[in-house]
Design goal:
- By secondary structure, the protein is mainly α.
- It has one domain.
- Helices cover 72% and strands 0% of the residues.
- It is elongated, with a radius of gyration of 20 Å.
- The mean pLDDT is 92.
- Bound molecules: protoporphyrin IX containing FE (2 copies).
- The site of one protoporphyrin IX containing FE (HEM) has 11 residues, from helix 2 and helix 4.
Length: 151
């Protein structure tokens, strides 16, 4: 297994723990709901998106019989995604009391997170295109079943 697959899955679990902790704090003490944006991006961008990154980058090469075309891009994607969540969530948090630098932090996090997402899209898309597997079509353009079927 590639190190970044394992790292994405473990990072996503850490972001879930952080996101859920803020959620719990907001539920227990409603004035903290001003940190809603930090909470939902930790859960959605940190946990949901990153677990999808990790699982897809393990499964897609195996489904398509084709290693990821840009391994170094996948490694860069991992660090961009982590920096992105840290900066974006810090930006959302610092923006609440109006601390200087919050917007710069938020924009840097947005660029890093978007960069990671673009790396993912390009890498997975081109990996599927490079797959040696051809679509096998049966009569009427329907795909052929994988296991022999009774006549
Ligand atoms: C123990 C788990 C969680 C707790 C206690 C919790 C708690 C909360 C609370 C109290 C709010 C509302 C804040 C307000 O008054 O505006 C909220 C908003 C939100 N939470 Fe969670 N949450 C949890 C897990 C999650 C997870 C796992 C996700 C996503 C995968 C999520 C996504 C959201 C979103 C998108 C909003 C914003 C909804 C809006 O825009 O109004 N939460 N959460
Ligand atoms: C590059 C990644 C992302 C960036 C830069 C980003 C940035 C933002 C910004 C600037 C806002 C508006 C905050 C405001 O009201 O001032 C926002 C809201 C929101 N984002 Fe994201 N986001 C990203 C990814 C995501 C993803 C992947 C999801 C869900 C899977 C998501 C879910 C939401 C939701 C639900 C809101 C609305 C919250 C509300 O107003 O109730 N975001 N995001």
């Amino acid at each position: 297994m590639d190190w970044f697959v394992r790292a994405f899955i473990k990072s996503s679990l850490a972001w879930l723990a952080a996101g859920v902790t803020i959620g719990l704090a907001m539920a227990l003490y409603p004035p903290l709901a001003v940190y809603r944006l930090a909470h939902l991006h930790l859960n959605l961008l940190g946990f949901v998106v990153q677990i999808i990154y990790g699982v897809s980058m393990h499964v897609v090469p195996r489904f398509f019989g084709q290693p990821l075309v840009y391994r170094r891009m996948a490694e860069a994607q991992y660090w961009l995604a982590q920096a992105g969540v840290v900066l974006l969530v810090t930006g959302f948090t610092l923006r609440v009391p109006g601390i200087t630098g919050a917007t710069v932090c938020l924009i840097a996090g947005a660029l890093a997170s978007a960069g990671a997402a673009y790396c993912f899209v390009i890498n997975v898309w081109l990996t599927i295109n490079a797959s040696p597997m051809q679509t096998v079509l049966g009569r009427g353009g329907r795909s052929v079943p994988l296991r022999p079927q009774p006549m």
